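Standup notes
- HV: blocked on the assembly model, inputs below
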Amino acid sequence: MLDGRLHLQTPEGITLPLTPAGPPKRALAWLVDFLLRLMAGGILLLLISLVGFSGEVRTGLWLLLLFLLLWAYPVLFEVYGAGMTPGKRLVGVQVVRDNGLPIGWREGLLRNLLRAADFLPMWYGLGLLTMLADPQFRRLGDLLAGTLVVYRPQKLKERRLPEGTPRDLPFPLKPEEQHAILDLVERAPRLPPARLLELANLAQPLTGRAGNASLERLRDYAAGLAGQQAAAPPPSTGTISDTAR
Amino acid sequence: MNLDQLQIDARPRPYWQAIDLGMALLRRHARTVYLSWWAIWATLAGLLALLTPQDWLMWNWLVLWWLRPLIERSTIFILSRAVFNEEVGVRDTLRAWPAQLRLGWLRTLTWWRPIVIGRGLWQPVWQLEGARGQFASQRRRVLGARGAYGSAAWYGVICAHFEFVLQFALISLLGIFLSDPDSITPFLLLQDEFAPGSWENHLPLFTYLLSGGIMGPIYTAGCFTLYLNRRAELEGWDIEITLRKLAHRRSSQLLASGKAAATLLLACLCWLALPAPEAQAAPDCSQLPKTNKYGMPVRATASRPASQGSAQTAIRADIDRLAAGPEFSVWECRETWQAKKTVEDKEREADPPPKWLQDLFGDFDGPNLPVAEILKVTFITLLVLLVAWLLFRNRALLGRLLETRDKDPQPTPAHEICGLDIRPESLPDDVPSSVLRLWRDGQRRAALALLYRASLSRLAHAQQLELAAGFTEGDCLAVARQAQQRGTLRAATLEFFTELTRHWQAAAYADRWLDDERFSSLCRSWRASIGDER
C-alpha cells in the first residue's frame, strides 16, 4: 500500500508518521529563500555603500556579507529555527533528522556545506537528480547528514458534525471502521448526493436500512462515537485525518 | 474499477502530498514506464534529427515538446492499470497506445498546448473516463475545483523549470569537459550559433530529449495521482473501501455463527429478551450538566449509554465526579509586569536621526573614517576577551595540569572502613587482652571485630597503607599485598592479616566461627605480627 509516509517507531511503541516533501515544494522553498537573500543582500549592499567606506574596505565588507548570506543563512536559520529557513516556513516544510529528532549543528552544517556538491555541474543539477532518484527525496547533503525534509504537521481543524441522536453501535467496530463512519458524516456536505446514498447503501450490514434512512442512522452512530450531547454538539474529535486544503 | 485492489492509500491528502505520491507510484513501475516512454520519445527525436533542415536544427526540439501530451498517455495507461494491481508490459503499452489517443487529441495539440499547463490533471478525463463534449468539460470543472487545477498548473511550471535545470546542467557538464584545460568554463556551449554542420547544432534537441525523458513521466505520474486523490476525495473511496471490508467481515462472522444453528437461535432469544439499545440511549444524555462549577465544559464520559448495567453506570458516575473535581480543572491566573512606553521613549522616536548619522550620510565620498583601525582594535579586544573567557571557563582543568606533585605529601588516612572506626585513639591500650576478655564473655562478634579493627588501624597508621573510606575487606587485603610486594610490609604481617580477614569474613558474613583454640593463638600472634608496629 503506497502511502507516501514514513512510519517511525519510537522505543515507547509510538508510531510517528513523517511525510517526506518532494522536489517541487523544496524548490519553491529554495526560491523564496533565494529571493529573500537577494533582497537582504541588496539592501545591505546599499547601506554599506551609503556609509562611504574606502574602496578596499567596501569590497571586504561585501565579500563578508556575501559569505554570510550564502553559507550562514541556511545553517543559522535551520539550527535555531526548528529546521526551517523563512522559505521553508512559508512553504510548510521542515528539516529533521532521519529518526525524527530536530537537527543540530552537525546536521545543519553538513547538509548546507554539501550544497556545493549538489550545485554541480550547474544550478543544482546533481541535487535534483539525487532527489528524484531517492525514495525519500533526499539530496546529497541530506544523505550525508542523515536528514529529511518533511511536511510540517498541519493543525487539525475543528469541524462540527451534523447533529444527531447519539446511538450505540449494534456490534463492535474496529477503529478504522469507526473513523470511516465519522469521515462519511463529516464529508457528507461535499460528496454528491447520489454518491452519498450509494455509500449509505454500502453500510447496510451495519445500519440494517437502505438509502436516506441508513444515512440518518449513520449520523446517529457518528454522534454517539464523537461523544456528542443531544443539545449542543461539541466539536468533533481529532480523529479525522488531514484533508485537502 | 475494483477499489479493493487499489494500491495506494485512498485517504484524502493535501494536493502536494498527492503529487509526491506520484513519484512513489512511478518508482514502483519505473522500468515499464520509462521503457515505453523512451521507445516513442527517442524514435521521434531520431526522426526529427534526421529530417530537420540545417537552418532549423536549433528549433526542432519544439516539435518534440509540442507532441508530448500524446506520449504522456502511455504513462497514464500503465499507471492507471498498475494502481489497481494490474501489470502491463512495454509491448502491451505500445500496442495499446494509438487507441488511447482517440479522445481529446485535437484540443491538446492545438489551442490548448501553449496555455493549459495543468493538462496532466485533465488527460485522464478523456483517456480513462471516455468523456466527451459537454460532459467532459463538466468533469474537468469538478475535478479542477478547490484549487486542484492550480496545484497541477504550478506543478507543471515547476517541472518545466526542473527540465531547464537539467538541460542547463548537461550543457555545463559538457562545457566543463570540452573546454580548454587552461581555462575551464561551464559556459562554453552556451551560445546561439555554431558552425554549420557541427554536432553542437543538435544540442537543443539532445538536451531536451534527456531532460524531457526524465521529467515527462514524473510530471504525468504526479498529475495522475493528483487526479486519483481528487476522485477519492470527491467520491469517498477510502470510505467505500472500509465499508466494503466491514460488510465482508460482518457476513463472514454471521456465516460462522450460522453453522451452529441452535446457538444462533438461543442467541436470538437472548437478544430479544434484552432491552433494545435505543431505549437506553436518549434519556441520560440530555440530563448531563454542560459545565461544572468552574464554568468549564464537562467531558461527559456518560454521554454514551452504559450498556452493561448498573455496575458500569456507577463507575462512569465515579469517573465523572472525579473529572469534575478541582484536581482536573485547574487553571491559574498570573500577574506579570510589562514595560510600557514612557513619554521619553515616544519623544525619542520622533526625534530626527542623531548628528553623527547625518554626518555619515551627508556626503557620499564619506568622512573617511579609520574603519580598518576601529575594526582591528575591536577584533583584538574581542579575541583577548575570548581567550580570557576560555581560560576562566577551563580554570579547573588548567589548575589540575599546573598542580605540583608534592602538594599533599601525607594523605590523611580514612577514619572508617567497612563501618569500623580505625582511629588509633578509639582502640583500647591492650588490644589482645581486651579481645580475649570479650571472647570469654561470649561477645564473639565484638571480639573479632575489635581485633580486625585494630589490625586495620595499625596498617593504616603505622604502616601508612593508603586505605580509603569506601574500601571493602578485599580491597584492604589487595592494598596490603601490593605493599608487601613493594617491600614496605613484612610477609608475616601480610600472612596474619590474610588469615584474620578470612576469619572475619567467615564470621561476619557467613556466621562461621573459629574455635577458641584457634582464636587465642590468633590473639597471641597479633602483637608479634601487627601490634608492635608502631
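- HV (later): unblocked. Chain A has two domains: 6-151, 158-245. Residues 230-245 of chain A have pLDDT under 50 and may be disordered.
- Next: hand off to the docking folks.
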